[in-house]
Amino acid sequence: MHDTLPEDSELWRFIRDTAERVARLYDYRAIETPIVEDASVFLHTAGDESDIVQKEVYLFEDRGGDRLALRPEGTAAACRAYIEHGMSSRPQPVRLFYFGPFFRYDRPQAGRYRQLHQFGVEAIGTDSPAADAELIDLQLTLYRELGFGDDLVLRINSIGTAETRRNFAKVLEAHFIPHLETLSRDSQRRFETNILRILDSKEDAGHVAVLSAPSILDYLSPEDAEHFEAVKAHLDALGIKYEIDPRIVRGLDYYARTVWEVEPPGAGGQSTIGAGGRYDGLIEVLGGPATPAVGFATGIERIALNMRERGLGPTEESAPDVVTIPLGDRGAAAAAQAAAILRRADISVRNGLPGRSMKAAMRGAGVSGARYALIVGDAEAEAGTVVLKPLRGDEEQRTVAVADLGSLGPSLTDRA
Fold this sequence. Notes:
There is one protein chain. By secondary structure, this protein is α+β, with helices and mostly antiparallel strands. The chain folds into 2 domains: about 5-160 and about 220-310, Bira Bifunctional Protein, Domain 2 (BirA Bifunctional Protein, domain 2, 2-Layer Sandwich), CATH 3.30.930.10; about 320-410, Rossmann fold (3-Layer(aba) Sandwich). Helices cover about 35% and strands about 20% of the residues. Strands 1-5-6-11-10-9-7-8 form an 8-stranded mixed sheet, with helices on both faces. A 5-stranded mixed sheet has the order 13-12-14-15-16, with helices on both faces. The mean pLDDT is about 90.
């Protein structure tokens, strides 16, 4: 787990504000779910062979003996809330987005931590291919608004329905049997428990058996194939470029049809910054009625890492508009009064501490990046005035009545 330091906060705020703005442009609304959930929300939905259950979920019992979990992902929690609050009675689909911390006992690496942050978007209550395309469009719009260019790679696939995957699993079994002893131990285990997951194995990504594996697209039902063609038609109409990658899988029965991943160029599937897909069976697994849905999630740490590498986002921490310099016995109280007036006018102020020399205080004000130093000593306090000294540009310093500070407004800030 890691700290987000002040020098990182501007970038994180920029990412969050941009994500929320883009989501609202598409008429998605915010939802917040608890960090701690009943463990069954995740254990019943993730599947026994998923990485979340096998390695990652933080489980514990509370004092009452209830089995709880720190949330490892957001979709199941959003679906639990959909059921619990009767959202099926609302106009469908219910459009939701969330931003927050999640927890996975994972091997830390660049852009991946055990406390991670994600932005996620869910459209619950529709099986329309247009919804799949809209979510992809929203996700790519987010990256574009963050400053990424057109070089991000969108890879899409259809994994059909559960019946499609059961039939395809038999085909994969016949394909992998001659190669089984040369696959990694993890893939050998998956051969017995969830054979489709061999296709997205990181250890065996370059194995000849994986590279030559049959494509699930050749085994889609007519309805599945029609749905995938409609998704591609919507993406084409939106001018969205994509690559078809039949090795993108999910493997759990509640996933259905469209799945996708977005990654930087040349990443080879190892640096995915966001992924999504359709999960038409998840609501039912959680005890609700059969309800189709689609969504995506994107990792904030991975986005921030890529943005820093590309020099995107805010380049430095925001500076205050004004720094006060209190002098003399009465300066501190007068400076605090002036700062309060300016803050009520939406002017950011760093209140200086008394006891410093004028030279040291001015040097500190200059380093802060502020536009003005507000100087107030005993004489100014007595007269009810302050001295505004510009720290940039050719403007002359001036004496201003304290009562008039609030009316100066935008003239004191770079936001003018």
